[in-house]
Amino acid sequence: MTQDNHSKQLQLNLCVIGLGLIGASFAQSLKNHSLKHADKSPIAKITAVDADANSIRDGIAHGLLSLGSTSVYEGVAGADVIIIAVPVKAVPDVLTKINQAINDGKLRSDCIISDVSSTKMSILAAAKAVFGAIPATFVPAHPIAGAENSGFLARNADLFRYHKVIICPHDEVDANAVQVVKSLWQITGADVIQMDAKRHDDVLAYTSHLPHLLAFSLTHQMASHDDNLDIFRYAAGGFRDFSRIAASSPIMWHDIFLANKDALLDALDKYQSQLRDFQEMIEHEDSARLLQCLDTARQARRHFGHMLAKKTQPTAQKSNSSLDKRIGYDMNNQSYYISPRQNISGTISVPGDKSISHRCIMLGSLADGVSCVSGFLEGEDALATLQAFRDMGVKIERKGDKIIIHGVGIDGLKPANNPLYMGNSGTSMRLLAGILSAQAFDSVMTGDVSLSKRPMERVATPLRQMGAVIQTTGDRGTAPISITGNQTLQGINYTLPVASAQIKSCLILASLWANGTTTITEPEISRDHTERMLGAFGYPIHKDGNTISITGGGRLTATDIVVPADISSAAFFMVLGAIGGGEGLTINKVGMNPTRTGVIDILKLMRADISISNEKLIGGEPIADITVRPSDLHGIDIPEHLVPLAIDEFPVLFVAASCAIGTTKLTGAKELRVKESDRIQVMADGLTTLGIDCTVLDDGIIIYGKGVAGERNAVFGGGEIESHHDHRIAMSFAVASSRASDEIVIHGTQTVATSFPNFAQLANSVGLAISVK
Ligand code: S3P
Hints:
Number of strands: 32
Shape: globular
Distance between the termini: 38 Å
Bound molecules: shikimate-3-phosphate
């Protein structure tokens, strides 16, 4: 193997030194993977070194190892990758033997060496001492996983699944070697992150070494007591929970405490001053501060518990009823295989509006009386909202094609038994954050992979200003979100940093329970369904230009709602009608709320042949039929004021722009980067795959259209597209197939069900050829 080959899917010889719990579990996980995916496995054979000949013998007998040895010098011969999984103090000796094997030509000098020790500075120092300089192919790593039982027989191929593995690259490290070590850990199901070695040691001193030291020292104090037997007899759950880790290996912890001496002593110093603080609070009976400290700690611990729960949370269960269905699309991958078809014609209806469907469940649940909703979108996003309110005690039934909501009144929600699972839905999570912040009970919200990456501080920050106690996760302020109930909210004046209907609606909803008036100003008008629907439920809300005011303390009165067809879903067919051949398309009874019609304005500017007919008002929202005929689209500079009014339609507008004559430029659309995916980058990647030139901007994109006047030429080639958990990416590339020369395959299309469950069927009924697999 050469350096260049490190990153490729090579057939590597892996040698694990130390067949304890970590080493043997790592080997077993890779072995299982290579048995399952022989064609994809980077591992040719696994060998091991262990002082215990029985472990080697068992490893070979169980088919885990091809070979093994009790000698490091002999056992590492011919290895491409060595993982050292011995106690930290034994690492220098192992490195010395590896060095001898290299010097004697038994082992290639560019072999990758990694370890699993829980201190990293001492390991780097040992490597430097043994090799003279830290080898470029030495990649320190630390899996944050363990178990009560140790040894070869306790091995568990799933030990690292959902656990973090920290890789600590040094200054001279070879990037390919890092990539190989990273890929191996990823195969075990671990979440691999990188960190500087010093920071690793500081962090671990607090999160692991100090707690172990405290557990050992407290238990030691009890054990040294004269009448310790009696004391242990009276010790209850608190002592049992706190001292559990003091039953771990003394040798291992002795080694770790000494190996991470500096960072641990520093953490211990700070902890001692923290203890003195507590001592003083108790001595002076400083109740207020003591309570506050205990409360802060409790909230932090509970949030930590929710983060842990989420790591292992299975995707929610499914049942036969679509209303009861919860979201499980991470588990069942789906792809579209689409053959090119150009003849597009027909008249269709698309499902109900997603934004309005969310809001009628929310307001209907909080109203006094029974509300009846027709045209509700039974997509997974709106169903996540529906399920959340059922979890909080609201009776919601389906009668024929209507949804009946038995409102519980403004103060009638009950705490859910489990964290509320919001699936892929940003609207559910952000709007509910406002409602939950004002409840008398604590709540937790979690979401799928895509939602768990999206920014939630944008709602948490203003909610905190109102007095909410709300915690997001990680440096980027994402889900899970923990909300502590029983707070008194105050009205605030808030200017939104971005035009966002979700932030605006979150604050409007929180202000229903706040003291006084909340005034919200948006930089640009965003969709106003919350404001309109509050009016329909009889709640006064004042609007003056871009500013909205709402006073807390009122009640909502149940009402019947008709949900119009979703213009965001219709947009796929508007673009399809314009770029495809055939007669074009008519989409019936589409919601035409002026805060949503940016897509029509943009398509018209691109000279699409669009006509609007049968304009009506239903339930306070305008609707109309939209007809779009095949058109010679032209590239334009999209006016920035239209961006919030077409915010969800850009993926499919990029497809339109690719078919246009000339260049289309979008700016002022940075928000697209924090949607279900980074829609600027993900679309640019997909368009490039299909042969479209584009330039990615920080806040937009330039697309060089390939349209030719008077022709329906194939502007896209074929190719494979990854939709990145984003329904609108998947549907947009499906539309592109009407101007493609070859098959387009789109992966991850199961997310289409979040907003448009019958998309493929409907698209095929007007001429596309989507085969769902
Ligand atoms: C939505 C608002 C928009 C939109 C989302 C639905 C809503 O998000 O992208 O699909 O229902 O309020 P932002 O308000 O964050 O732009």
